[in-house]
Amino acid sequence: MTRLVDIHDEEPGIPLLIEDAGILNLRIKPLRTSNYWLIPTLSASIELSRHKRGVHISRIARLVLETFNDEYFDYNLVDSLAEKLLDTHSETNRARVVLKARVAGSESNQSILYCVVAHRNGIDKRISGSGVTVLNACPCALNVSTTIFGKPYTHMQKTRIKALIVTRNFVNPLELGLIIEKTFTTMKNVLNRLDEYRMIAQLYDKPLFNEDIVRLTAKLVYENYKDRLRENDKLRISVVSYETIHTFRVYSKLSRRICELDEELALSNNSRK
């Protein structure tokens, strides 16, 4: 019988280290948390040595499916998968696992991200993120129509907010999304006429620029998590508005270390005194 040669372990023609090699967005079965169902995909990769031609893709896929075999979800499973990747790939020093999921039944169309980067000496970095869709009214058109015509006319947008926290500590992405949801007006599938009026009135009473939303979200996340984060941990906030009267979208983003926000927000507070 002819013996198969494992060509993955051959020396590559071009001996360059590859930071991430693996599988991307593998769909797995729905996962259940205490309050929600998640519709997930998993990405898993390792750092590939300059002396290895390729990764064993089936080995990685098998580890993913074995790790997430039960319907009940725990974030420790993501950490565990990263450790298993290191255990089964003795030649690598780095593994990366990314869980992305839609939250089933969420009226804000919430999605989450949880990423773990592990080395031989433990977990080096976690990225926790959440995306939610909120509603907003344009303050510019409202100001013009009220000032000149005495009537509050404006247009509205669906706005997608994404918040990421980069740290070594654990941050629950679902909790992060709920904090953002409570601050803004989210979509509702069932509204009676009075509820609809209240929603519209709320939007007209507090119209926001896209840039207002990104700043407000950054301050909100900072205030809720600063005591759990280190000074060099990072917040990354992005906001995309899906315009109703334009063919383009409006976009803004903000990225800061915690120590930078400490300083900037302290200056902001002092300037208002």
Q: In terms of topology, how is this protein built?
A:
Blueprint: E1 18-27, E2 31-32, E3 37-48, H1 57-67, H2 76-88, E4 94-103, E5 111-119, E6 122-137, H3 139-149, E7 156-167, H4 173-183, E8 185-186, H5 193-205, H6 210-225, E9 234-242, E10 249-257, H7 258-271
Antiparallel strand pairs: 1-3, 2-3, 3-4, 4-5, 5-6, 6-7, 6-8, 7-9, 9-10
Helix pairs in contact: 1-2
What can be said about this structure in brief?
The chain is 33% helix and 33% strand. It has helices at residues 57-67, 76-88, 139-149, 173-183, 193-205, 210-225, 258-271; strands at residues 18-27, 31-32, 37-48, 94-103, 111-119, 122-137, 156-167, 185-186, 234-242, 249-257. Helix 1 runs antiparallel to helix 2 (76-88).
Describe this structure in words.
Strand 5 (111-119) and strand 6 form a beta hairpin. Strands 1, 2, 3, 4, 5, 6, 7, 8, 9 and 10 form a 10-stranded antiparallel β-sheet that branches. The chain is elongated, with a radius of gyration of 23 Å. The termini are far apart. It has helices at 57-67, 76-88, 139-149, 173-183, 193-205, 210-225, 258-271, and strands at residues 18-27, 31-32, 37-48, 94-103, 111-119, 122-137, 156-167, 185-186, 234-242, 249-257. The protein is of the alpha+beta class. Helix 1 (57-67) packs antiparallel against helix 2. The chain folds into 2 domains: 10-105, Urate Oxidase; 131-273, Urate Oxidase. It has 7 helices and 10 strands.
